[in-house]
Amino acid sequence: MRQADGRPNAAMLPSVNLPNGENLGQIVLLINKLQAFDHTPEFSHIYRKTLDPALRREAAIKLLAASYYQIPDEFSELLSASFSPDSNLARQLVDAGKCQLHFSQFNQTYLLNCTVKRLEEDDYYFQATFWHNLLFNPLLSTQSYILQFKIESLSSQDD
User: What is the pTM of this model?
Assistant: First the structure.
């Protein structure tokens, strides 16, 4: 988090395959806090406090780098990602309803079989994803597709 100025590293960018094996490329996923440990109000406050995207990013990194990721039990098994309103990739994932996420770094690979659904704006995970991502992408549309990836099975491989 601190080393890349908030940008995701390779290990956080899985490649996505449809059930038919078609590779759709890489996406940026967000791991979400359980609602009991919600930080969405803080994200919203940071965003509204200044119009300067650099200051927003700096405040977000400070919050996330401190202790945000330190307690694994505070996180949901539900992953999410935001996509532009005209995203063909998002539509393909929703239409398929399932995908496989390939995480790989160094000589370790994780394969997650997931169900996929589009979240509605009033969903907690929609709001958490939207406000988090808005801090790093000031051009994020309020009409964005936000998809949920529910892990159904996991396997790992050593290369």
Answer: 0.89
